[in-house]
Amino acid sequence: MTGRELSQRIQRYMAELDGLGERKIIFNFDATFDKRNSKSASGLVVRGLMGAILASKIVLHNNVSSPFAAKAYAGLQAITLGISMGILSVAIMGDSRTVIKKCQTTKPDKSVIGAIIRDIQSKKSHFQEINFQFIHRSENVYAHKLAQEALEKGEDLHLMRVVSDHNRSAPEGRWLRNPD
Questions:
Q1: 22 by DSSP, 3-state: which?
Q2: DSSP character for 164?
Q3: How many angstroms separate the CA atoms of 14 and 58, rounded?
Q4: In whole angstroms, what is the distance from residue 56 CA to residue 54 CA?
Q5: Does residue 1 sit within a domain?
Q6: How many domains does the structure of the chain reveal?
Q7: pLDDT tens for residues 90-128?
C-alpha cells in the first residue's frame, strides 16, 4: 500500500467517524426493580445502523419508589449517555409503554415519575432529532439482562466497544469496572 492510499483510507475512516454523530443511533433501555431494598438497575444498549452494539452501560439507583420510577430512570440514563457520546440523532426504545408515552409528550407530567420525565424533557434539546419508541420486551432482552445481572451483583459497568453478533444474547466480555 502506498502512502497516498494509506492517507486516503485514513481520511475516509475519519470522515466516517465524523459522520457517526449525524446518523440515528438506537438506545435500548430497561430496568429491574428490587422492592424490598428500594433499588433498581438500568441496562442500556447502544446500537449502530447495522445493529452492532456500540456501547452498553449499567447504572444502579438507590431510593427508587416503584417499577415505573425504575423504568423512567433508565430512560433518563439513555438520554444522558446519548449526550455524553455526542450523538445528534437518536431513537430511544424501551418496553414501558407508560414511560415512552410520557417522554413523547410535551405536556407537564404530574404523576409520581413527573420529576424524572421533566429531566428527560429538559435534555431533549441536546439532540437534533430524538424519537421515543415502544418496543416489545422480546426486542429488549439484552438491556433487560444487563439490568438484571447488575442488580444481582450490585455493580455498575460501562462498555464502549463493538461486541460481535454472537455475544448479543449473553452479557459477557464486559469490563470489570468503570473506565477511568
A1: helix
A2: -
A3: 29
A4: 7
A5: no
A6: 1
A7: 999 999 999 999 999 888 888 889 999 999 999 999 999
